[in-house]
Specification:
8-stranded mixed sheet, 6-stranded mixed sheet, 21 helices
């Protein structure tokens, strides 16, 4: 398919809506801009961060266009947020605490100790983390890394760790701290549904989109994701309770556990000797996600609000600065109290009002429409409560999903046809594709882009080769992107338009790295294999493989009825083995991950095979590879 490099201009309805935003919001308020620039020490001399092969994984000046005026093709509120997020460099937060900002989606914080520096949340890629550490050292001296701390289990807070510390240094005594449950959740999220999440993340962050006023301008929480090497160094110490104190290199920290907020395993950090509070990702300068568009488990806004109240009670009275692993700090105790209180009220309001309307019989889409028009005026006036990353619309639907699931109670929705079959019937009922497109063009001219996208989607799914339908759908999605205040909505819309015009961009950043795979427990690795079984092709298979590792009970893998189970021991659930294999754990992992073929096991040093090794090859042959490039806007 020839690449469509141009974008269509903003339609008058979008231009008018964006102009209304300019008039409604207090753009003369410069406090955030002052805070973004406070403590600036300098930035990197080279704008391009490259990997070992010379490939650019981050461009510090990719968003220089944001210094200009906002065009009609971008929401001015999102443009402002992106401009603030795009500032890059090393910043002093308070004496002894520094942040590298604008080098990735997230911030890397560096806290100076007696001998070296504690690194908090080392970005996504080792290349960007290394560049950030080099910038810090250029201004503060060549201090060694004397500790690493992960605030939570998302990849933008641990993936670049090998850019700041080596495995040998950790084995030599450099501590790596993390909240209890970090490793389980970090690995599970990136492996079990990691392929689907990564593909959807390509839409969410728009990393492959052209940067500019008609393209990608940011993601609200940060600009986009870097595309370098993702790694993981396992924690050496767990933080398990609120009030727990730890000292690393003379740096005293008091922790607040916040599980089930922005991540399943997360914590806040108080630095009592520096009157500073790190809020991880629990209080940032936007409304966050209760259900991220890339996909995740639904988060609990009730618990989130409760932990923010607890943070206020525990720390707000003794902090002069609060900072997070995204965005810019807030200085001054009154400002911190005000900021944290409004963030708390934001999540509590979404939770409580969604449930109020649920109990009045409203469905998710109905609640979303009402809530968007019914946010408290004080929260609507505050910049930091706006939906640049999460949104009132999709967050209220997430609350609905958390309590009631996917079904809205209407039996007409209980057993609908899947998308392609529905689309063909809709198009037939509406008089055929030409008639649908004729009507849709009128709706487009009237500025009803939501309806155009909804109805033309049926034509695309009924006939994905219909060039007129793809073009109109792309134009409608593009207009919706131009009007979106939410960065991830804009990226989803513009990515949809891009792929309709040009084909798939694939997945720029893969989070299932060798480090992440190596961190899987054997139970998790067996579960990950079970997810890959092609069930229908395996209905008639009955294969039993028993593994024996030194000093452990045997573990039996059995494929039966299209289900791969694993059982420790040799009890009735294990069944009778077709082949028994004694080996070490490294070799077992290599076999299961495809690095060593089953045929190489007989005669291999340290391996004993009893039975038919071909049965193992047969079992592995029932595994299907995930598709990292699956279609989203077409069937």
């Amino acid at each position: 398919m020839p690449q469509h490099t141009g974008a269509e201009p903003a339609q008058p309805e979008i231009a008018r809506a964006n102009e209304a935003v300019r008039k409604r919001m207090p753009f003369d308020d410069t406090q955030d801009l002052d805070d973004v620039r406070r403590g600036f020490l300098g930035t990197a001399a080279d704008n391009l961060v490259k990997d070992a092969d010379g490939r650019v994984v981050w461009d510090l000046e990719a968003y220089g266009f944001l210094d200009g005026d906002c065009p009609d093709s971008a929401n001015p509120s999102l443009w402002r947020q992106s401009r603030l997020c795009a500032d890059h460099g090393l910043f002093e937060v308070t004496e002894g605490i520094y942040q590298v900002r604008g080098f990735d989606l997230s911030n890397m914080t560096l806290v100076e100790g007696e001998r070296g520096v504690l690194v908090i949340d080392p970005l996504i890629s080792s290349e960007t983390a290394a560049a950030g550490l080099a910038l810090y050292r250029a201004h503060r001296g060549d201090r060694p890394v004397t500790g690493v701390l992960y605030t939570h289990s998302h990849v933008d807070h641990f993936g670049g760790v090998r850019g700041v510390v080596t495995a040998d240094e950790v084995r030599g005594g450099v501590p790596v701290l993390a909240p209890e449950g970090f490793l389980e959740h970090a690995v599970r999220e990136n492996v079990y549904a990691g392929t689907a999440m990564s593909r959807r993340a390509a839409y969410m962050y728009g990393a492959a989109l052209p940067k500019g006023g008609q393209g990608q301008v940011g993601a609200g929480l940060g600009q986009t994701t870097s595309t370098g090497s993702v790694g993981l160094v396992n924690p050496t110490a767990d933080i398990t309770r609120t009030g727990q104190e730890e000292t690393v290199d003379g740096i005293r920290m008091v922790f607040q556990m916040t599980p089930g907020t922005e991540a399943p395993a997360e914590l806040n950090i108080h630095f009592p000797d520096r009157a500073a509070l790190c809020m991880a990702e629990n209080a940032t300068h936007n409304l966050h996600n209760l259900l991220t568009l890339r996909g995740a488990e639904v988060r609990d806004p009730r618990v989130w609000a409760q932990y923010l109240t607890e943070a206020i009670d525990l720390f707000a009275g003794s902090c002069d600065v609060a900072f997070a692993s995204h965005h810019w700090p807030t200085w001054g105790r009154e400002n911190i109290l005000h900021f944290l209180s409004e963030q708390r009220d934001l999540y509590a309001y979404l939770h409580d009002q969604t449930l109020r309307m649920i109990n009045q019989g409203l469905t998710g889409p109905e609640i979303a429409e009402q809530l968007e028009a019914q946010m408290p005026p004080a929260l609507e006036r505050a910049w930091h409560t706006h939906g640049y990353y999460g949104s009132v619309s999709h967050n209220s639907k997430a609350v609905y999903q958390r309590y009631l699931g996917w079904f809205d109670g209407n039996p007409a929705h209980l057993w609908e046809h899947p998308p392609v079959e529905s689309a063909r019937r809709y198009v037939e009922f509406m008089g055929g594709a030409d008639r649908v497109l004729q009507q849709a063009r009128k709706s487009f001219a009237d500025g009803d882009f939501r309806w155009v996208a909804q109805v033309v989607n049926h034509v695309v799914f009924a006939d994905p080769d219909n060039a007129d339908a793809r073009a109109l759908q792309a134009n409608a999605l593009e207009q919706l992107g131009y009007g979106s205040e939410n960065g991830t909505w804009r990226n989803f819309y513009l990515m949809g338009a891009w792929e309709l015009r040009n084909g798939s961009v694939g997945t720029p950043t893969a989070t299932t790295s060798p480090d992440v795979l190596a961190a899987l427990t054997l139970d998790q690795l067996f579960d990950a294999l079970a997810i890959r079984v092609d069930g229908p092709r395996s209905w008639d298979a009955d294969i039993c493989v028993r593994w024996t590792l030194p000093g452990t009970q045997p573990v039996t893998l059995r494929l039966r009825n299209g289900v791969l189970t694993h059982v420790a021991g040799t009890g009735p659930a294990a069944g009778r083995a077709d082949v028994e294999i004694a080996l070490d754990e490294d070799t077992l992992r290599a076999v299961l991950l495809g690095a060593v073929p089953p045929s190489d096991l007989p005669g291999r040093a340290g391996v004993t095979v009893t039975g038919d090794i071909a049965r193992l090859a047969e079992l592995l042959g029932h595994l299907a590879d995930p598709d990292p490039d699956f279609a989203i806007v077409t069937p």
